[in-house]
Amino acid sequence: MATVLLLRHGRTTANATGVLAGRTAGVALDRVGRDQADRAAARIAPIPLAALVTSPLERCRQTARAVLAQQQGSPEVRVERAITEADYGQWQGRKLADLAKEPLWRTVQANPSAVVFPGGESMQTMQSRAVAAVRRIDAEVEAAHGPSAVWVAVSHGDIVKSVLADALGMHLDLFQRIAVGPASVSVVRYGEHRPEVVATNTDSGDLSWLAAAPAPTGDAAVGGGAGHDEPGSARA
């Protein structure tokens, strides 16, 4: 089964000022965000990527360009609208501190499956389109490049959290329990029996083992296995 690295974009000017950017055009990485993107790219650099897929928004494109700049090969690059930011409607462009005073804010925290942003989309729709796109592209990558293929999806915090919630078998109402920081890398494999969530919200650490690991079988090792770098490992 192929491996997808879910990469959130680096910090933006909107993140730094507490504004919900949404799909606002021209929201770019700030200096911290550019450094974060470069560090994430360096972690991913040892892995020959089969594909690099990005949300169409500028902050994700910038992060994707940072990853591509440190790749030795030439992965397929594509833009995928289905992993773009949630449509926050009338909430877009407003201060988070002000939004926290809205009655809907409590629902976003406790019961997101019931949320429809005024003038925007529902959080259920957001999750459905993102999960469908990631699973579809993962299957395409594996069909084209084999079960050892690794690819990157560059997206947004709520999108990555919703994809991880699905992979973990969590109800959307629980997805706020998942943390996804700027330029963090989460690792998921979609196996024959179930998804395998290998890592979440990592912003440091070696990822090079993904380049050398044989294709996983998709079966869960009874007892937990020996890990990816130990003799007798299900991945080694």
UniProtKB/TrEMBL annotation:
Superkingdom, natural source: Bacteria
InterPro entries hit by this protein: His_Pase_superF_clade-1, His_PPase_superfam, PGM_Phosphatase, Phosphomutase_MSMEG4193_put
Organism, as annotated: Curtobacterium caseinilyticum
Protein name: MSMEG_4193 family putative phosphomutase
